[in-house]
Amino acid sequence: MKETCRYKQTRRGAGIGSIIGAALVLYSSSAHAAPDGETQFILNSFSFILWGALVMWMCAGFTMLEAGSVRTKNASVICLKNIGLYAIAGLAYFTLGYNLMYVDVGGFIGSFTLFYNSSAAEIALLSGDEAALASVLESDYSTMSDWFFQMVFVATTASIVSGTLAERVKLWTFFVFTIILTAFIYPVVGAWTWGGGWLSEMGFQDFAGSTIVHSTGGWAALAGAIVVGARARKFRKDGTVKNTPPSNIPAVTLGVFILWLGWFGFNGGSQLAMSSALDVVAMSVVLANTNLAAAAGVMVAMSVSRPILGRVDLLACLNGAIAGLVAITAGPDIVSHQLAIVIGGIGGLISTAGVKLMERLKIDDVVGAVPAHLFAGIWGTIAVCFAAGGQLSVQLIGILSIGAFVFTISLIIWKLLDLTLKARVSPMVEELGQDVAELGIEAYPEFMIMPDSEDVEDLKS
Amino acid sequence: MKETCRYKQTRRGAGIGSIIGAALVLYSSSAHAAPDGETQFILNSFSFILWGALVMWMCAGFTMLEAGSVRTKNASVICLKNIGLYAIAGLAYFTLGYNLMYVDVGGFIGSFTLFYNSSAAEIALLSGDEAALASVLESDYSTMSDWFFQMVFVATTASIVSGTLAERVKLWTFFVFTIILTAFIYPVVGAWTWGGGWLSEMGFQDFAGSTIVHSTGGWAALAGAIVVGARARKFRKDGTVKNTPPSNIPAVTLGVFILWLGWFGFNGGSQLAMSSALDVVAMSVVLANTNLAAAAGVMVAMSVSRPILGRVDLLACLNGAIAGLVAITAGPDIVSHQLAIVIGGIGGLISTAGVKLMERLKIDDVVGAVPAHLFAGIWGTIAVCFAAGGQLSVQLIGILSIGAFVFTISLIIWKLLDLTLKARVSPMVEELGQDVAELGIEAYPEFMIMPDSEDVEDLKS
Amino acid sequence: MKETCRYKQTRRGAGIGSIIGAALVLYSSSAHAAPDGETQFILNSFSFILWGALVMWMCAGFTMLEAGSVRTKNASVICLKNIGLYAIAGLAYFTLGYNLMYVDVGGFIGSFTLFYNSSAAEIALLSGDEAALASVLESDYSTMSDWFFQMVFVATTASIVSGTLAERVKLWTFFVFTIILTAFIYPVVGAWTWGGGWLSEMGFQDFAGSTIVHSTGGWAALAGAIVVGARARKFRKDGTVKNTPPSNIPAVTLGVFILWLGWFGFNGGSQLAMSSALDVVAMSVVLANTNLAAAAGVMVAMSVSRPILGRVDLLACLNGAIAGLVAITAGPDIVSHQLAIVIGGIGGLISTAGVKLMERLKIDDVVGAVPAHLFAGIWGTIAVCFAAGGQLSVQLIGILSIGAFVFTISLIIWKLLDLTLKARVSPMVEELGQDVAELGIEAYPEFMIMPDSEDVEDLKS
């Protein structure tokens, strides 16, 4: 258990106030009336479960975003993938992931023990042993409150992958990859950083996970996109790109609003404590910056979408919000709000241009998740250098090492899965749609849907 | 007022820590720095209103689930039923229900007085009488915070009924039944249990309401389904069952995510206090178990849907999440998370098989609410015996007596309503759809909808 | 900075307990165990950011409500307007609005300085200067927590305008108006009232903004509707009114549920503190009343929609919920819950009749926002007189002066915008729909949409 506490300091160290936090509490308790130990424990634990619940809500956001972005013939399967990945992430992280990430972390990885549980002192307290209270309060928060908060972060990482690979990755293959991602890949990255491993020792800063969560998801998605390949006729032989508009724009928009709301929990809760004035001051700064960065992402994407994409583009604006959020996530605790606007705004520029870049590279990313989560995540992690005193070399080492690890291992696993289970559905399934072919249902069975004329012609020939 | 306090101990007694809780506070206040009385009051009250707000959100979840599950021609009416039932539940529970459930409860029922209000001390405090503070703090929480939290639970019960009976129950008949359910039936069940009545005295355990809320809703829905009958041609003369797929799968999925999120408030808030380390430790355990049980419900339903239903079934997975949540609701405060997974997983199995059973019994339940809320609710209430020390005999007495009461009285009321107001719309209204026939609108007026060929043929003949 | 504190007293003074609040804290700290200063700071700040996050969620509610209310051909543009207005509101309020509203407010307006920031003491604390804690705690809450809470209120005001003017106002013109509304118009109204200006000095009471937020939005929308004009053929030459039903009823319903949930934050957070028993007692009362008023709005609208509109009208019920919420917003802290029901119920009556009145006046309000937000807002502000001791003369002066200011300046600005940028899209764009014409996309590109026969005929001729 002691080992699991280390990351706290590491993680907070990356934020505002760092070690001073602890010192302050000691200092201030004599100088003024401060919360008592049990109240602190309550507030910290509550912060984890409340903000964690908002992060769970982000899964609904990804689901709406993706279900609205795909063609109607694949909308049911993407719903199943999303509820399935959230279920898998929770179970896998409980079974193995959390222990790999936070328990007895050496430089590179934690413990391979199975299952995570409340501390012995907490179980004693819950069983009626009043004397256990003192031991319980040696921790700053309850065991499972922290587990809950960390668990919803894993799910976020997995959500990123489903969007990029929508409309052609096989259901079961995707689920197997999700197990590996959430039980192993993400926890290893987490062990290096928030778990107190080698990157943390070097001073790598990533407050709520621009790299640790979002780029990790982005790299895994990118590897998958390369192995699985583009959707049929997305990149035509004549070099043109087929337009594949979202089937349900209000659903996509709702998804982005959900994500925006959930991000207040994602970044705000990553202060990891709410037991001092310092904590809530920081948390308030974090929420303000998170909102301003997202707003700037929207406005910049709106402004640059015409020159870059040829029109005012709603999807660019929505993705710009996400990119702004991702970009600020590495350092939302900066005191300069103008800088938060700049960081988020550049995020919106990057995601908009990034969509164009992905098309050039002929990599098919259905929802633009790689630009928004990976590209903007890299930017946000670098931005910490001038915004919050990060060291450029260390930040780059973190970005590159995590990128190399996640991308390589993901590529290998996707390849292995392709050789065994097949990564991609058959052309016939792709034409029919995964909903009918894999699930035997339609997302909107009563609505008359226009056939994709290009697909029809292709099938005829 | 004093009487309303009784249930608290009763209800907490069913959970972790029970009476020790109070003892602990006394003990610990000398042994270590604990929250002062006013801070405890604040935290407890805040816990009620915050988690209660999340439970209110579950009504939106039921609405989306049901609006997506029905055919498009009935989607508007189900929206009206849901916003209407939430409005009715609040007004009816304020007018009578709360007093019947919690005020001066004898063995079987509380007070028939009208309206519930802030305590005299609170009103004095709000009016500027500082001296009233001490009296206010004799309670552990503010009066209306508790009312608010209890009120959203009633609404949940009513939400269950609307789903089962969708597409054929008359709008006004449904509303009249909702008034009786929320002003009388549910409060009586509540008085027996959380209100401190005879089942509570026996030691019946139901932490957040697997039986009290979910089975009660399920029994009322089942009685209604029997009286109202199945939708036209749902069960054909040749013994086959007509497939009636949801009209909007992303809406159903969104509904389930909303319910999952809201359930953190439903179960977490049912700790009924947040003023001690014990409380937040328990609350954290509750959230972790709630999530794990739902996840297991999804995965088990996914696994068994192919053998049971003949295909990987998205709806079974979504309903499995709900069944997992319902199953853990009677005892989410257990310290064994593996057991929470088992309980939720079996819930997912039950709901999937239950859908098949309902078809065999030729009972038409549009959203599978009876399997998910009633069957899984019974299971969860029994599971408390091995997971949290419940007595099997007592649990069975609770399940059976509540079942007998709710089912019988609901059956009588549905019958009476059928004889007076009619329970069911006319065949012509059912064919046209309730939206056009009862409201004069369509849910999606611009979208071209495919006619139900079977319905059309039937109308011709 | 000191000046920004004034409004707090002003604003709380309008609510329960007023100045006694502060006195109580002093008094009670000797009489009983009360929260220490730092705990109070934490709870107050947390209240702002948490409830503020729920208010942000209301923007998603407006988006769903509006996207479901417009015809499908304009659903994408309304999504863009909504995410854009939320982004603009945050940036404009940060850049100028907050300072105009709260910093160094004289009688009429605050400071024209740019940007708002954490206090110097907070920055020092965040930078590690432990000695700054005492200065930080001189405030009752963290600087940016208050900013965040105030910012989401501005966005609500802007959201009201987009709904009324949907389907014909030009995208960029709307955004320019939004900048002016959120950077200047709303902040001036706010300075007069919550900022401590002349209306506040007179004793004008508006707890959470029936007038300050909702009527302000309503007046701005009304002015816009007059300048922009009605949608083509909405009011036919023969005096009949064209029926323009919502295109997606479940989306509208979801929007209203989101608003209802968000309103708990809107009204509950407007207690502006959570650091005493008095505060949470008031907050609990506020949530109970908010819910009851909305419920009454639904039920009254349901009852009167048949005589007024000729049928049981789902939209009237949904708008009735909003009107009930708006009506109670000026005084949700009243101790008589029956009165809250009456106030909300009359709100539902007003919004239903108001829709009819707007049709008579031939003013085209796509979502009925003017009846729900302006008419019910006026009613709620007057209701404070008998429900919470407001002075009728003062309340009327507030309603009229704010109405005159907002309506006049909005009218001028809409006129100027019409002369320069054009306020309205061309007839061809209106027929084609703004989605295709302004954004080059469709909201539901795969669904077959029925052409509006009247439009088609009109285009032919």
What does this structure look like?
The structure is a homotrimer of 461-residue chains. Chain A has helices at residues 2-14, 20-31, 37-69, 75-102, 120-126, 133-136, 143-164, 171-192, 198-202, 210-228, 249-268, 277-309, 314-328, 337-360, 369-388, 392-420, 427-432, 434-439, 453-460. Chain A contains 19 helices and no strands. Chain A is mainly α. Helices cover 71% and strands 0% of the residues of chain A. Chain A has one domain (38-106, 116-271, 280-460): Ammonium transporter fold (Orthogonal Bundle). Chains in contact: A-B, A-C, B-C. The interface between A and B is large, with 72 and 78 residues.
**Approximate shape of chain A:** globular
Whole-number average pLDDT of chain A?
Answer: 92
Q: Please report the total strand number of chain A as a whole number.
A: 0
Query: What are the secondary-structure elements of chain A, in order, as H or E?
Result: HHHHHHHHHHHHHHHHHHH
How many alpha or pi helices of chain A? 19
The poorly predicted ranges of chain A are 1-31
CATH class of chain A: Mainly Alpha
- What's the architecture of chain A, going by CATH? Orthogonal Bundle
Enter the CATH topology name of chain A: Ammonium transporter fold
- Share of residues in strands of chain A: under 5%
- Would you identify the CATH H-level superfamily of chain A? Ammonium transporter AmtB like domains
Quaternary form: homotrimer
Largest interface: A-B, 72 and 78 residues
Can you summarize the main beta sheet of chain A?
none
- Using only C-alpha atoms, the radius of gyration of chain A works out to 22 Å
Helices and strands of chain A: which structural class?
A: mainly alpha
The number of domains of chain A: 1
Helical content of chain A, roughly? over 70%
Distance from N terminus to C terminus of chain A (CA atoms, Å) equals 64 Å
